[in-house]
Amino acid sequence: MELASTWISGSVRSGKTTALIECLADWSRQQAYSQSDKQGQEIRFGDRTEILRPSLGGSTALVFALNSSNRQGLMPALGQATAGLGGVQSTTPLGFFEDEVLLFWPRLMQGLDLPAQFPVRLRPETEQQLASQFWQAAPWDRLMALENLSLEGWVRRILDLLQLAAFAGIALEALPQRLEQGFEQLQIQVSGSQGEGHSLAETLVELLVDWRDWCLQHGLVTYGIVTELFWRYLLPDPVYQGHLLRRYQGVFVDDLDSYPAISRPLFEVWLDHDAIAVFTFNPEGAIRLGLGADPDYLADLRLRCSGQRQASAAPPSLGHDLRGEIESFIQGKTLALGNSFLCLQTSSRSQLLRQTGNTIIEAIQSGQIAPQEIAIIGPGLDSLARYTLIEILTAQGIPVESLKDQRPLNSTAIIRALLTLLALVYPGLGQFLDAEQIAEMLVVLTYKGSAAHPLELDQGWIDPVRAGLLADYCFQPDRDHPQLLPTTTFPRWDRLGHQATAAYNNLLQWLGQQREACQGEALSQPYLSLTPVFILDRAIQYFLTPHRLTYDQLAVLRELMETAQHYWQIKERLRQTQTQSSTIPETVGHFIQLLRQGTLTANPFPVNLNGQPRRAVMLATTFQYRIARPKHRWHFWLDAGSMLWHGGGAVMLWGAPLCLQQWSGQPLTLADQMQRDQAQLQRLLLDLLSRVTERVILCQSHLSVSGQEQIGPLLPLVDSAPPLPLQTEAD
To answer: Using one digit for the tens of pLDDT, what is the confidence trace for 111-120?
Structure first.
């Protein structure tokens, strides 16, 4: 009996993913048993007919997970369920779009008359930098007059529009009408690039079209461009669809409610040809609504599935127990939450962070709960809150797992030291150097730490005091040729000591060797000399790798090297396609500027270092927490009185409601916006409560960080919850 395409519906933690894996295992067993009997299937593509036969070695299933983290968690279960039965390939929506476009690039290149070069994908930060330079003639004054937003903010908004339109399957040519209908202020007439009159909406789309065409002509792609190429040119191609069905005989999709709209025509390729397709869908999910997801449009795939399956009931949780009370709360009714909710209130936010940390410490040290059973969640966690809570807890030996703690690379001393070193190696970068940066570099690059090998002590270490003296007396600032002078330049150089002098001379010798490699004839042919990627790698190998580095240091160093390689690859591509190119020192200067702006980030707390969950307190935003899909005994909802809970704490990109397939064509009224925000808040509360089993502590301060009174939508919950007994400062 052939398995039918199946629609699995259920709430949070109701076993939808388990049911999906069971369907995959059943299908894999069935395919293994009937493989020898299959002679091929006759299928029509456009104006021709083709016999599709299973791939050699058995049938292959394509499994979609929402993101890479979910995919990593799903793969062990998939491998165990289908061991020896057939092939399974897992992917994510964005990963699949990119892989397919790159795989079939020659076909796209031929059809779109693109230059014969393999594409390079731009990272978001590089995309923004190049777009800002490309759009210098854009009407930024008109845009900033509409809304008090920086130029960088408007550039990001316009680039996001390209991705939102691609996710929705909306051609750029149709976007101006939607923008004008959604934003009346974009109907203002401005001069176009050729001097003709255009509305502001048409001008924005004209910028996007020019940017997209420029990128394709230079062999550069972004997530938005890749997605548009996939849905608009590749997916409708009958030849491509034939390849798709030949490679994958079934598709299994987890968390469909958070996928972009163009996923629907993709999955319909299998449904149209009677191949197996299994979907899991949470009617109360839609975590990525406002970020490109279109759950209402994708829900219609349910009508194409002959098998309907309700996931099992969710395990006991506060969401199950308090569903009725939460729905009443959203409707503005009075409620009684019982003892499941407690309230921790303080006057200032600094007191709130301290009391929250102390409450967790007391609960763990008294044996009430283990660290891994606690989650601290907030609609928006600023760096101060993360740093304070991590410091308070780790000082008492309680580990903290901070989800997606994206910190600027330049906030790490090792990265700043390496950038200072780059500015000393290449000429013409003196404007990026000062005595304070030199002193920090001397300390960081000569520090051996507790793990230094005894034989390395001869190289010594420069402590902060001696580093300051050397920076003051031995650093010669100069715009073109900044230098570190010999220690004898300092009148009292004998006070530096043997270790500091040895370390300084060692660094001077290394700098001299690198400068020699980058001087002379090599600089007359810029791209034949040593690139900053090589210099950074040499510096890391020489100064840092011989000593024990922490995981967070390794993480930022990996991100630095990946960023440098990517940046240099993009510059090399532009050099090949443009008549004018910058020299290596100029490129290094731009790279240093980019990092010092704080745009590039890395996660200094790698998760799952040994493949096992960390036994640590989890710290996350509401969005990060829902995406990660964990569960805990206790929740601490930070800043419960904040306005950031409004609309369910959702991050909605500018123009996202206009890029939904079922958009009405009319701007949202105030009543519509309130209804949407209430629905999002209800989804958020039920989702969070379905992931906690015992207690929620509402942590609220009367005043926010800015000193304003908190008037968020959860204040009725705070007022109805009994207070949490606190220790006094004397205790």
So the answer is: 888 888 889 9
